[in-house]
Design goal:
64% helix; mainly alpha
Length: 200
């Protein structure tokens, strides 16, 4: 007598089927690299990285300016300071924007501004400490990067108010150029991550 045919149990059906092959659907356009986290929009790792890159490039170009002798006159200091600030903050902003986890012009511009602010405060504090300790060579190199009126204020002689005003204006213009360069560099670095059309 033959056994009756029985239907396979669900467990047997699951174990009897093999794995389905993966299907390649082609590259998709890049959108958000990572959604906003609940902790906030600020990413400190790219910000600190951009700050250190900015300061490294600034000190490197400042030391080059001292080596080639551009720190001998006020005009040379101002021009070299503007050049070094633009290059240094652009590179630092580009690094920050390139390493952000989110592709957005607004977020990258905000991080570029943050890189500039943190780097400026850090550089001023470090330079003042070096000046107080008496490291004249480091202070001289930093005076090339930042105008003397910003970082290491000198004792003004009587009747030097016009020179102080001029130094303040030069400092303001150089810092403004640094802000613009850092923001533009961050946006350019962030947008260079795109391989497709990105909304936002």
């Amino acid at each position: 007598m033959r056994e009756p045919i029985r239907e396979p149990t669900p467990q047997e059906q699951r174990t009897g089927r093999g794995p389905e092959p993966l299907r390649y659907t082609g590259p998709a356009p890049v959108g958000e690299a990572m959604p906003y986290s609940q902790g906030g929009l600020v990413e400190w790792a790219p910000t600190w990285g951009g700050m250190f890159v900015s300061l490294g490039v600034l000190f490197l170009i400042g030391a080059l300016g001292v080596a080639i002798g551009v720190s001998s006159g006020a005009t040379g200091v101002a021009i070299w300071g503007a050049i070094s600030v633009i290059i240094g903050f652009f590179v630092g902003g580009w690094f920050c924007g390139r390493t952000l986890n989110y592709i957005s012009p607004l977020v990258s511009a905000a991080h570029g501004l943050l890189v500039w602010a943190v780097a400026t405060v850090f550089a001023i504090a470090f330079t003042l400490i070096m000046a107080l300790v008496g490291a004249s060579s480091v202070a001289a190199a930093l005076r090339t990067v930042f105008p003397a009126g910003l970082v290491v204020p000198s004792v003004s002689a009587p009747g030097a108010a016009a020179a102080a005003v001029t130094s303040s204006w030069v400092t303001f213009i150089i810092l403004l150029l640094g802000v613009a360069a850092c923001i533009i560099g961050s946006v350019v670095g962030n947008q260079s991550r795109q391989t497709g059309v990105v909304s936002r």
